[in-house]
Amino acid sequence: MKLHRFIGEYDLSKKHIEITDPKIIKQIRAVLRLEKGDKVLLSNGKGKEAEVVLDSISGDKIMGTVNQTVVSNEMKRKVHLYLAILKKENFELAVQKAVEVGVMKITPIITERTIKTGLNIPRLEKIILEASEQ
């Protein structure tokens, strides 16, 4: 069974976790249709994640019990990608795939032949968050 991963500001040191982020609640309830007793992975974005069993699911909060906590080891090599800004959604796709394979830092650069110079930073941050949840 696949465990779904969610990244947020969670205090994983406690035994019971409360999820109050409306986007994550909607994802769990409406999109994934998870139920009481299902398991998810919650990550605090700082290298610590926990397997959580869902205890109760309501419209405004989800309660869960921490099953086990794992501190992920830092990668031996940290890859920094310098990526020329590409046209259309090609840059977004390249950023998504780079994050999925483990690139730690991406720096957009403008080269001699760069045509597009503007980036939608909030959209890129959303793409990076979703790719890191993969």
Salient structural properties:
134 residues; alpha/beta; Ribosomal Protein L25, Chain P; 2 domains; five-stranded mixed sheet; two-stranded parallel sheet; 3 helices; 7 strands; 32% strand; elongated
Structure report:
With 134 residues, the protein is α/β, with parallel strands linked by helices. The chain has two domains: 4-71, Ribosomal Protein L25, Chain P (Beta Barrel); 80-133. The chain is built from three helices and seven strands. Helix 2 packs parallel to helix 3 (121-133). The chain starts with a strand and ends with a helix.
Strand and helix layout:
Layout: E1 4-7, E2 16-19, H1 22-31, E3 39-43, E4 48-57, E5 62-71, E6 80-84, H2 90-100, E7 105-109, H3 121-133
Parallel strand pairs: 1-3, 6-7
Antiparallel strand pairs: 2-5, 3-4, 4-5
Helix pairs in contact: 2-3
Structural class category: alpha/beta
**Backbone CA Rg:** 18 Å
The largest sheet has its strands arranged as 1-3-4-5-2
H and E order: EEHEEEEHEH
CATH C-level name of the largest domain:
Mainly Beta
Please provide the count of β strands: 7
Tally of domains = 2
In short:
By secondary structure, the protein is α/β, with parallel strands linked by helices. The chain has helices at 22-31, 90-100, 121-133, and strands at 4-7, 16-19, 39-43, 48-57, 62-71, 80-84, 105-109.
